[in-house]
Automatic annotation (TrEMBL):
PANTHER family: NADP-DEPENDENT MALIC ENZYME. This is Malate dehydrogenase (Oxaloacetate-decarboxylating)(NADP+). Residues 23-156 form the Malic enzyme N-terminal domain. GO terms for biological process: malate metabolic process. In the C-terminal section; belongs to the phosphate acetyltransferase and butyryltransferase family. In the N-terminal section; belongs to the malic enzymes family.
Length: 752
């Protein structure tokens, strides 16, 4: 979107992201099977009549028999879409779908967007009020001030479920958390700081109110709108603004900022100028929160005042002060205790919980991923959105505050147990993947895309580069530039292209490969032909010569053929047998299956190796490994002639004294279904397995492909493990985004 370190994507990629596959960002997934006549009879007529009657008799039963209790509506009329202004209900839909997805991703709250085509306050209120039976909570979004105040207040009075205007209270909570910490760092007390709030709308007024409630002095706050200072006696202001009108003779933002400690921007792009920043107090605190473009870019603010603490609403700079840190977790807590509303006690509890998190030591995986100073300090005053601790800490704080303040209709007795259940609600793989992406952005690597002439590969390379994950090194002929141009790249020469026909590296490559293969029956001229004509050979040689950190291929050859070509250039790591892992990712579980790609009849020792190495990958992806060695046979029943290698693998692991659970032989239902597992109390698995080591390539490969085609789960891989350099071979059907994921996992050495 622009030209500095924050560049993440082009407009074209943003559009493609939204249009690719199923348009938009959400779909509805059935949570009950609907396959048989009997399912139909239960789910619909006549079975459905039974819960209908139960709810008619006791409305609270709706929480037991329908999705209401975990369902939040994100509702807007599009009158204040981010900082873009009033662009109408329809145009707000991408933002509202986005918020719905964030609810699901961060807090497992089901959510749907609703855009109402009206600017009439009463019609809006009536429409929302009528929806009370459907939802467990209402998240109002991007509705402009002052209408939003009337809308929210009236709905809170009329509805018996939480109603929360995110731009007001979500923003205020996160701003308060950030401000508490910024003040701590600059040794300021809340009752001393002088604050200028730029913007006098929904977010600005709610932030000001919360700050004042937390101890900031009224006469220390000056609020401005587009016309300048909101001063006492100014005539063109509304009642909500006049409550914060300052007794001052300052009239412009520039004058207001003279000597101020804090700038809170909730207005529009570019409203804060470097000259104004220079005139602020020592160690100024600058929260430039307008989206998508802040009031000032951090690099400009820092250039004007190197001693400033700067935060924005964006994810591509340190200190993201954005309500995404709040609303998913606040609703999680409120829904879980069936709170009838979200009151100040719950908001303040959330603000303190978030502020407190930033002051604690950051978990290794988060620190490693973000790569920047994640020690409490000027560059880290607020947790990053992908910090998995948010889900554990914030809902629990909100739920407790709801109980203490009498809003919980279903209190939670065991808060510790609740915290644990929160953690289990999210699949660690998703957060590890997010962190892997962040890690790639923090430490961008060079990745060879060996099939640079393929459109899908070029789209992946563009996404990889524009996402800031690293530098794609393309293998292909000059015509790649035309293809890049056709994909909307204005200056394709920004992409590094290696063409074997003209590459000055070819003689060195031929020497290297000839030395490697001369005693394996290859003539020098065969080697020359391979280097010139085989993109996988050429790409792998680029990796061997140190031209890049990792390589990705796979879309133009069968997996086995690509592997053969790669192995001509790159060996297995010392004492390792290369093998493949498919990762199946569901909403709340992840299963690793190995070896799905290389070894047809592994020995017991190899099976043990696969288990150990897959366990290491699983740990890097945030899972405590539990290995099941699969078979048709359950602990010797029925007997079989091909069970020895599995038994050997178990004995081998016994001897190695590994630090994870493993058991076998067993079929998948015993490995994955706790009820089945319970039939074998001697089994050394404390919970269902998450790593399935298959007895041979036939079963492994077939299972992985069946699950990919029929299972409806997200599949990552196959990941190639055990090579001396990070190489990944994607399936021929891989999409651009699957290629990017593999490239990121390869570059970050998570798949290794
Ligand atoms: N980081 C975060 O989490 C969040 C950020 N925001 C951002 O805050 C901004 C406001 O959102 P919201 O309160 O919902 O919208 P509203 O429409 O309710 O309010 C907008 C306010 O901004 C003022 N404004 C616009 N341009 C300027 C300017 N150049 N200088 C001074 N004031 C200006 C308007 O003043 P006037 O009446 O004079 O036009 C109005 O008071 C948006 O940019 C939004 O993206 C909002 C919520 C969360
Ligand atoms: C973040 C947000 O809600 C906004 O900018 O409107
Ligand atoms: Mg908003």
């Amino acid at each position: 979107m622009s030209d500095d370190r924050s560049v993440q994507f082009s407009e074209r990629e943003a559009l493609l992201f939204h249009s690719e596959g199923r348009p938009g960002k959400i779909e509805i997934v059935a949570s009950k099977p609907l396959t048989t006549q009997r399912d139909l009879a239960l789910a619909y007529s006549p079975g459905v009549a039974v819960p209908v009657q139960a709810i008619a008799d006791n409305p609270a039963m709706a929480y037991d028999y329908t999705a209401k209790g975990n369902l939040v509506a994100v509702i807007s009329n599009g009158t204040a879409i981010l900082g873009l202004g009033n662009l109408g209900a329809l145009a707000s839909k991408p933002v509202m779908e986005g918020k719905a997805v964030l609810f699901k991703r961060f807090a497992d709250v089901d959510s749907i967007d609703i855009e109402l085509k009206t600017e009439d306050v009463d019609r809006f209120i009536d429409a929302v009020e009528l929806m009370e039976p459907t939802f467990g909570g209402i998240n109002l979004e991007d509705i402009k001030a002052p209408e939003c105040f009337v809308i929210e207040q009236t709905l809170r009075e009329r509805m018996n479920i939480p109603v929360f205007h995110d731009d007001q209270h979500g923003t205020a909570i996160i701003t308060a958390a950030g401000l508490i910490n910024a003040c701590l760092l600059t040794k300021r007390r809340l009752d001393e700081v002088r604050i200028v709030v730029n913007g006098a709308g929904a977010a600005a007024i709610a932030c000001t109110e919360l700050m004042k409630a937390m101890g900031v002095r009224s006469d220390h706050v000056i609020m401005c709108d587009r016309s300048g200072v909101i001063y006492q006696g100014r005539e063109d202001i509304n009642q909500w603004q006049s409550a914060h009108a300052a007794a001052t003779d300052r009239r412009t933002l520039t004058e207001a900022l003279h000597g101020a400690d804090v700038f809170l921007g909730l207005s529009a792009a570019g409203a804060l100028k470097p000259e104004m920043v220079k005139d602020m107090a020592p160690a100024p605190i600058i929260f430039a929160m307008a989206n998508p473009e802040p009031e000032i870019r951090p690099e400009l603010a820092k250039a004007a005042r190197p001693d400033a603490i700067v935060a924005t609403g964006r994810s591509d700079y340190p200190n993201q002060v954005n309500n995404v840190l709040g609303f998913p977790f606040i609703f999680r807590g409120a829904l879980d205790v069936r709170a009838t509303g979200i009151n100040d006690a719950m908001k303040i509890a959330a603000a303190h919980a978030i502020a407190e998190l930033a002051r604690q030591r950051v978990p290794e995986e988060v620190a490693a991923a973000y790569g920047v100073a994640h020690v409490f300090g000027p560059e880290y005053i607020i947790p990053a959105p992908f910090d998995p601790r948010l889900m554990e800490v914030v809902p629990a704080a909100v739920a407790k505050a709801a109980m203490d303040s009498g809003l919980a209709t279903r209190p939670i007795l065991d808060l510790d147990g609740y915290r644990q259940s929160l953690r289990a609600r999210l699949n660690p793989t998703t957060s590890v993947l997010s962190l892997a992406y962040e890690g790639a952005r923090a430490r961008p690597k060079r990745v060879i895309f060996a099939e640079g002439e393929e459109e899908v590969v070029l789209r992946a390379a563009i996404a990889f580069k524009e996402g800031g994950y690293g530098t794609p090194v393309l293998v292909g002929r000059e015509e790649v530039y035309d293809k890049l141009r056709a994909l909307g790249i204005a200056d394709p020469t920004e992409y590094e292209l290696h063409n074997s026909r003209v590459s000055p590296l070819v003689p060195q490559m031929v020497d290297f490969l000839y030395k490697r293969l001369q005693r394996r029956g290859y003539l020098r001229r065969e080697i020359e032909r391979m280097v010139n004509q085989e993109r996988n050979i050429f790409g792998a040689l680029l990796l061997q010569l140190g031209e890049a950190d990792a390589m990705i291929t796979g879309t133009t050859r069968t997996w086995a053929q690509s592997m053969r070509e790669v192995l001509r250039v790159i060996d297995a790591a010392e004492d390792r047998t290369p093998f493949g892992i498919h990762v199946m990712v569901g909403q709340s579980h992840t299963v690793f299956i190995a070896d799905t790609t290389v070894n047809e009849r592994p020995t017991g020792e190899q099976l043990a190796d696969f288990a150990e190495q897959t366990a290491a990958v699983a740990r890097r992806m945030g899972h405590e490994p539990r290995v099941a060695f699969l078979s048709f046979s359950t602990f010797g029943n029925p007997k079989g002639v091909y069970l020895d290698n599995i038994r050997d693998a178990i004995t081998e692991l016994d001897g190695r004294g590994v630090s994870f659970e493993y058991e076998g032989e067993m079929p998948p239902d015993v490995a994955l279904n706790p009820k089945q597992l319970a039939n074998f109390p001697f089994a050394r698995l404390s919970a269902p397995a998450n790593i399935l080591i298959m007895p041979g390539l036939q079963s492994a490969h077939i299972s992985a492909k069946l699950l990919r085609e029929l299972g409806g789960e997200t599949v990552i891989g196959p990941m190639l493990i055990g090579m001396e350099k990070p190489v990944q071979i994607a399936p021929m059907t891989a999409t651009a985004s699957e290629l990017v994921t593999l490239a990121v996992l390869a570059a970050g050495e998570i798949a290794r």
